[in-house]
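Hi everyone, sorry if this is the wrong subforum. Our group has a chain we'd like a structural model of before ordering constructs, and none of us has done structure prediction before. Sequence below.
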Amino acid sequence: MPENPKIIIVEDHPLMQKGMAMTLEAEHDFEISGTFASAEDAIAYVRNETPDLAIIDISLPGLSGLELIKHFRSSNAKLRMLVVSRHDEELYAERVIRAGAHGYIMKVHAGEQIVAAVRKIVNGGVYLSDTMSSKLLMGMSYRSDKPNISPHERLSDRELEVFRMIGKGKATREIAERMHISAKTVDSYKARIKEKLHITNSSALLQQAVQWGKEEGG
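Answer:
Right subforum, don't worry. Here is the predicted structure as tokens:
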């Protein structure tokens, strides 16, 4: 482990951000070198600084946490990354590991797990629950040939992000602005989502997105 590893936190909820920072700073060998409420601010910081670990929430305003992970993987290969999210690990853990992260914990468990997760990751390991580790090792997350898999397994990362924002009532223009893409590209994602989920119209797409959002925790 690097001596006094430098950690940044990318989390837009002030209380959660503060709580994680306080917990980690209590471990006197950790240094919180920056806290950010958006992916864009974190990217700007890392252009000039070299933290050892980034703790990232998936649901960020603007560029998503998943896209931030991909950016850091391509631009900062040595940066270790831990996702702390309110979403159930079965929804996103495989995606974030594929994207380049090194661990995933749910916010409800952050208080008891974050120190152990950070230590394992900065030492070169991967931190997942035993259940999720077994599923990834056995390839159980790859089941696209089964008819009853959930939307998060059918859709690409960007399609899932569009689907999630549709469920939150975001209009095409707002989705485009948040994802830094054109409205035409958003419409293309919507068309692919409808095709993959066998949805025939926009009203049905909205209804299914809202329902899925409720089931996966909003």
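For your construct planning: The mean pLDDT is 88. The first helix runs from residue 14 to 25.
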